[in-house]
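Quick look at the format.
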Amino acid sequence: MFRNYFIPLLLLFSTFVFGQKEYYELRTYTIPFNGSEAELHDYLSSTLLPVLNRNGVENIGVFEALGDPTPKQVVLLIPYKGVSHYEKVLNEMNSDKTYQSDKKVYDAIPISKKVYTRYSSSFYFAFDGLPQMVKPAEGSQLFELRTYEGYSENAVDRKTDMFNDGELTIFEETGLHAVFFGSQVSGPLMPALTYMLSFKDMEERNANWNKFIEHPEWKRISKLPEYANTVSDIKRTFLKPLAYSQL
């Protein structure tokens, strides 16, 4: 019963206490074949995450895709309190003596042992209907990352309205546990929105998506003309948290 009212209560509480929406960076490292992956994990776990935590960035997610994809990728979800917080953190990292000292080993890795081929960053503003990240329940070991592309900015705006105006509540009622929902402001695949869900396992995920599809309110709003043709393509990735992930 409580979860049915969780998102509306979170929205009211978050707006009152924080007065702003979070700003997310979704960073994806592509690992070269036989790359020095251990050195990347050492840097992330013992250098990057600690300096971010020292500067008020909490609940940083670190994931890799299920299975054994090639090339392998490491995904970071970094939640900032807003754009100004993001700018402040970058400035503080440049002057943080501990961080500058700790990353000397990482900076000295030679090209012959490079830890990634490239990394990409996408940035998002949190939805009005979910202005702050929701930390997953303990034991969540499956994360579903979904990107909805739209054929135009207006299409994505209308799909965002659909989430804010009722679809987020249906997600919670059917056990599609939101971690974050974000409107993309930079990065590839624009215009688009991205969100992340958490589950105990694939069995829970499949059962709860079936509940969602059969939900009478979803069937009603999905047929409303104002939400027609809002999604032109969907990208989906299943992720598992790494040992040092804070989600």
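Next, a different chain entirely:
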Amino acid sequence: MIELVEVIGIAVALSIDAMVVALCWSASQKQITMKHVAKFAVVFGFFQALMPLLGWVAGDALHQFISQWDHWVAFVLLAGVSVSMLKEAFGDDDEEEEKEKCCGHCEGVKKTDIAWGELLVLAVATSLDALAIGFSFSMAGRAIVWPAILIGIICLVLTALAVLAGKRLSEKAKRFETPMTCLGAFVLLMIGVHILYEHGVFA
């Protein structure tokens, strides 16, 4: 029972970054569908479950090497997505005007979804900390399969709730799309900086 509570606590803690990222992205969008909710939830949940498994398999053989660089990898990935969001927020105004004048026939080609590549980058960046959990379970000689599955399921549920929460924010603030996109980009960048801080980069 104690071990179950411990794993649930770990899962919730590991899911926080994923929830913030999902919330910021969905809050900056004009329209959120159940496809978006499922897409974010499944991808983020999958990687949150996969990383502990990879960490457990690697054990302490790669721990020394990976632990020296995982925070920089996470920072670079998050910073890259942040820059991409800013570029989108301050994109070509003429192009946006043309989209608004569209008669509706070409509505299907307008960008209304997150690219798979960008989503995968976000999922990997927010799940790198889970590698350490796998390492610790391996060195402690503890099983990892059921904890990894539980971590993935909890992340999936919490991420879905975050996207839905962002949808409600989006519906109430459509006119503030650019500021909210900038805020989302800033939050992602700050998550990356915080990861560096936690690893003593600024000490």
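Residues 2-101+111-198 form one domain.

See the schema section for token definitions.
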